[in-house]
């Protein structure tokens, strides 16, 4: 007789929902038994015709779930219950329940949209919101709508907000309360301070938990690095009967199995990443230590790169983790934060589709031929556009449509970058494809990827090798080589450039090892690294920083190799541009690979109009420096414009706004700052006005004043009023004050010695008033010059009296 599980209480309700609606959403907490019971209940109740496919988020969970289901039937895996995952399959003709990793379902649907022979699809642990699960559900819903109305769909989750999922699926929600084993939460007395080291604080809390409790302990840490450091700090601090077992995705599969298996004696301390939050049953766990951190991949469409970020856990994740302590008995959950910090935790983690690299999704959408899939969360437009741009560069898309090459990439269990490398490069590229798809196989090695390539070939390079990772890479390389075509063998850097055409890096000028990538982004390398002095690199991994990514692995690549692999994308570009640094127009002929300039030489016969257009940018940067004549002309126009606004505006702002229109024809021959400063723009300014407008300006605001003697003297328009300066005697006989554009001229009278003696805006008034005093003063000083009592009756003159 099998053990009673909490899910058993709602199985009839769940089956009823499936019979009535053909689909259902099941919400059940950890330990309720949904993974173990639901597939068998559907099979045994006869409500499903055909095979039942159940998705699990990870390989370990897939195998473990299949084994538990088969065990309940008293069979071996591969009979009624089997599994499929990348590189490993255990099914037979008798198999009715297939447990698969999430990506397998997508391949099934793309190969056979009707899902022939499949009667039900179960999405287990859907609250993890992986990209593959979201895509798989969207595809399955469309298949059910268009082709298979009889297809049963079930979504199972522990902590997900079930309402939106139920609305999307069009199904009722069935809720299991789970087993009510109490889990006592224990928080820190105070929040961690900035100076508190995370690893030390985590180790202290684990030691405290082991000392205060009994039973197995499950510790949640963000990644492998933290697991190893905490494990090191726990050495010698735990009782001798404690066995410390790490558990993370990159661990050897056998070691993962060992971490979840029960031990015969003593206590088990499992140091795990989020892999242990769901879908895995770890025996004998009574205590959880939640260190409050989670590591997620974030994709920045602006940089086209992904990076791992460590963030605070969400309330849903904290609840999920704590629940692992109460699956079979009362437990305790230690939290590496203060109780008052709970309120600041986000409710749920972001769906992977919101933050991930969408290149693989874009390929699948193109193969499917539709963007209108019913996603629970729509993919961000920016990230999707960036993914399609990359796929176009790889030849997988043409005008947004999938190519035959793109279909070949979709069939491969690789990121499209690496798939392109494998299909284009052939079997010899399989090792590098496997190497780049796994975590780093070396510890503490420099950025040069060639050290990893040599380690894969069995050469010793003096750096510690992660044996588990190396074994996985070798196994994957063999599998990929079977999928690859036969091609002529190339060098590793050419293979890498095939996968990363947007990451061909050219070193910038300067002492610091900064690079510009062909995709337009910036990158930097550790100055002490041996690659830091190389001119050209092909970058295979960065930290994903959107401002300036740090290069983690790269290969040296020659310019010849760049031309070999990317020659079709190298463009010859001739440019004329203003250089602020040089203070002149630079005309260059460049060979460009995206943002990388492979060669740059002078363009000696650049067209004059191209140089002039570039010089306009220099004018905008330098501003105007008008000659005295040009400034006088502008002032004259402004004066007339005040009474006749149909004239053009020649202010600095207006001229700069229209500089393309009026200055361009007069710039040939001007290419430098010094030439511009000495360039007289008077002719160009005069050309702005029509002939009739120039006539009006010359008439109403002439450049010069004709004196009563017929002599021309320039009018100064630079002040608040137009002004002339001349000898007093030259204005004798003037009875009306001179004007310009309806405004009186300011007249400055000079003595015979050319010294100012009076300024007036009313010449007749001056004759009638102040002139008498001026006459008295000047007669004694300049007796040989005429000083008549009535200047209005005198003739203008510049002569002196004849000597007696």
UniProtKB/TrEMBL annotation:
PROSITE patterns: HELICASE_ATP_BIND_1 (PS51192), HELICASE_CTER (PS51194). Residues 205-373 form the Helicase C-terminal domain. InterPro entries: DEAD/DEAH_box_helicase_dom, HA2_WH, Helicase-assoc_dom, Helicase_ATP-bd, Helicase_C-like, HrpB, HrpB_DEXH, P-loop_NTPase. SMART domains: DEXDc (SM00487), HA2 (SM00847), HELICc (SM00490). Residues 15-161 form the Helicase ATP-binding domain. Residues 779-804 are annotated as: Disordered. One of its GO terms (molecular function) is hydrolase activity. PANTHER family: ATP-DEPENDENT RNA HELICASE HRPB. This is ATP-dependent helicase HrpB. Its EC number is 3.6.1.-. The gene is hrpB. Keywords: ATP-binding, Helicase, Hydrolase, Nucleotide-binding.
């Amino acid at each position: 007789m099998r053990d009673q599980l909490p899910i058993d209480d709602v199985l009839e309700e769940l089956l009823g929902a499936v019979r009535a609606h053909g689909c259902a959403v099941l919400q059940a907490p950890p330990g309720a038994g949904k993974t173990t019971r639901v597939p068998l209940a559907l099979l045994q109740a006869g409500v499903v015709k055909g095979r039942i496919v159940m998705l699990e988020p990870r390989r370990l969970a897939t195998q473990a779930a299949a084994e538990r289901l088969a065990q309940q039937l008293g069979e071996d895996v591969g009979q009624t219950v089997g599994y499929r995952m990348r590189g490993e399959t255990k099914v037979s003709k008798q198999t009715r329940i297939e447990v698969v990793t999430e990506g397998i379902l997508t391949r099934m649907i793309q190969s056979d949209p009707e899902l022939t022979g499949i009667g039900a699809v179960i999405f287990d642990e859907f609250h993890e919101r992986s990209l593959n699960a979201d895509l798989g559900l969207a595809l399955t819903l469309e298949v059910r709508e268009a082709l298979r109305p009889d297809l049963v769909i079930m979504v199972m989750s522990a902590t997900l907000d079930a309402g939106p999922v139920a609305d999307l699926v069009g199904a009722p929600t069935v809720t299991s309360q789970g087993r009510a084993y109490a889990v006592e939460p224990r928080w820190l007395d105070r929040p961690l301070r900035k100076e508190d080291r995370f690893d030390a604080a985590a180790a202290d809390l684990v030691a405290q938990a082991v000392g205060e409790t009994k039973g197995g302990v499950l510790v949640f840490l963000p990644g492998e690095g933290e697991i190893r450091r905490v494990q090191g700090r726990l050495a010698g601090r735990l009782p001798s009967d404690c066995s410390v077992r790490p558990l993370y995705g990159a661990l050897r599969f056998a070691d993962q199995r060992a971490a979840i298996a029960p031990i015969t004696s003593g206590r088990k301390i499992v140091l795990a990443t989020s892999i242990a939050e769901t879908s895995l049953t770890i025996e004998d766990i009574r205590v959880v230590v939640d260190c409050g951190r989670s590591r997620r991949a974030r994709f920045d469409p602006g940089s086209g790169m992904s990076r791992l970020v460590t963030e605070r856990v969400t309330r849903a994740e904290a609840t999920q983790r704590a629940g692992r302590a109460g699956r079979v008995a009362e437990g305790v959950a230690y939290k590496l934060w203060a109780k008052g910090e709970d309120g600041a935790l986000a409710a749920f983690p972001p769906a992977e589709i919101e933050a991930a690299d969408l290149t693989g999704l874009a390929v699948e959408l193109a193969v499917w031929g539709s963007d209108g899939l019913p996603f629970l969360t729509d993919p961000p437009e920016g990230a999707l556009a960036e993914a399609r741009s990359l796929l176009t560069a790889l030849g997988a898309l043409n005008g947004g449509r999938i190519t035959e090459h793109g279909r070949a990439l979709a069939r491969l269990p690789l990121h499209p970058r690496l798939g392109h490398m494998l299909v284009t490069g052939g079997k010899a590229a399989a090792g590098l494809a496997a190497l780049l798809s796994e975590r780093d196989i070396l510890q503490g090695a420099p950025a040069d990827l060639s050290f990893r390539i040599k380690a894969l070939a069995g050469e010793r390079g003096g750096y510690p090798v992660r044996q588990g990772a190396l074994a996985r890479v070798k196994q994957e390389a063999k599998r990929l080589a079977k999928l690859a075509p036969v091609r002529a063998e190339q060098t590793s850097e050419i293979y890498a450039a095939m996968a990363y055409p947007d990451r061909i890096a050219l070193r910038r000028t300067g002492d610091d090892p900064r690079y510009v990538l062909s995709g337009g982004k910036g990158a930097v390398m550790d100055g002490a690294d041996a690659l830091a002095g190389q001119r050209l690199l092909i970058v295979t991994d960065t930290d994903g920083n959107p401002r300036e990514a740090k290069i983690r692995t790269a290969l040296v690549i020659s310019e010849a190799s760049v031309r070999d692999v990317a020659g079709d994308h190298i463009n010859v570009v001739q440019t004329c541009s203003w250089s602020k640094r040089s203070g002149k127009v630079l005309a260059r002929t460049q060979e460009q690979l995206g943002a990388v300039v492979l060669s740059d030489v002078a363009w000696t016969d650049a067209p004059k109009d191209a140089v002039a257009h570039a010089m306009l940018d220099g004018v905008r940067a330098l501003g105007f420096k008008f000659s005295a004549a040009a400034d006088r002309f502008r002032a004259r126009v402004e004066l007339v414009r005040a009474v006749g606004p149909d004239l053009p505006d020649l202010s600095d702002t207006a001229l700069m706004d229209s500089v393309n229109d009026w200055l361009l024809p007069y710039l040939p021959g001007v290419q430098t700052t010094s030439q511009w400063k000495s360039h007289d723009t008077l002719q160009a300014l005069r050309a702005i006005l029509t002939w009739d407008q120039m006539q009006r300006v010359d008439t109403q605001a002439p450049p010069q004043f004709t004196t009563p003697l017929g002599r021309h003297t320039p009018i100064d328009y630079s002040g608040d009023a137009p002004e002339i300066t001349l000898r007093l005697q030259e204005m004798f006989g003037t009875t009306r004050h001179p004007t310009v554009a309806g405004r009186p001229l300011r007249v400055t009278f000079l003595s015979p010695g050319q010294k100012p003696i009076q300024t007036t805006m009313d010449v007749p008034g001056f004759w009638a008033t102040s002139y008498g005093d001026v006459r008295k003063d000047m007669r004694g000083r300049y007796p040989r010059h005429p000083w008549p009592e009535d200047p209005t009756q005198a003739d203008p003159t510049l002569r002196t009296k004849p000597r007696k």
